Amino acid sequence: MSESTQTFTDSGVEDSINRDAQLWPEDTGQLTAASRKVLVHLVKGPYLSAERHKEAWRVLLSDTVAIRSRLADLFLDLVLDEAQGVAFVRNAPVEDGVAPQVVRTMALTFIDTALLLFLRRELLRGSGTQRVFIGKEEVIEHLSSYKANESTDEAGFMKRINSAWTKMEKHSLLLSGGAGERYEISPILRLIFSPEQIQAVEEEYQRLARTAEPSPTEAGKEGSGA
Fold this sequence. Notes:
It is a single chain. This protein is of the alpha+beta class. The protein folds into 2 domains: 7-91, no CATH class; 106-219, Arc Repressor Mutant, subunit A (Orthogonal Bundle), CATH 1.10.10. The chain has 8 helices and 10 strands. The strands form 4 sheets. A 3-stranded antiparallel β-sheet has the order 3-5-4. Strands 7-9-8 form a 3-stranded antiparallel β-sheet. A hairpin with a 4-residue loop joins β4 (76-81) and β5. α1 packs across α2, α4 crosses α7 and α4 packs across α8. The chain starts with 6 loop residues before the first strand and ends in a 7-residue tail after the last strand. Residues 1-13 and 212-226 have low confidence and may be disordered.
């Protein structure tokens, strides 16, 4: 392995884009092993957290330019919010629209949509605090107001609520603290939707509420590889 060549970003932070980081004989990559792991984490999703992934977060901040460049090669855009302590990738906004959609969307039912909007509203309402928690009973109480639109079958309605809750857990939008029954609302919900996307989701949600037809809708979940 040849001697490493270090480069620096404008901020003076060391970057590995031109560093010889050969990990096996045929390896032509230039990122260090740590930076490659961060790259994989971001692509697989759903996101990187400063609190939950401390070492990976440190590596991301020290090698942002190189990692961002490698993501761009995959038609992916890095969203990095140091204040919120979260980072994720989204499909790059290519002007001609011919780029492949690497990040998949998450199909949302009527109840999924109602839950997602409720979680985001509660998160923004508690924006003055670092972390916002919620209990499942609060979610059930809120969603119960839409029971007439969704179903008159109590058991079936609760099944759909549980399914929506499980989906939010699966995509790390609800985070279990491992103790008690309250879950943290992921701060990524402040970032993954643009105002235009939120408006589109809300309009579709209102349409479903008016028609009372629980058909699926699509909402882009940026930063999820799941």
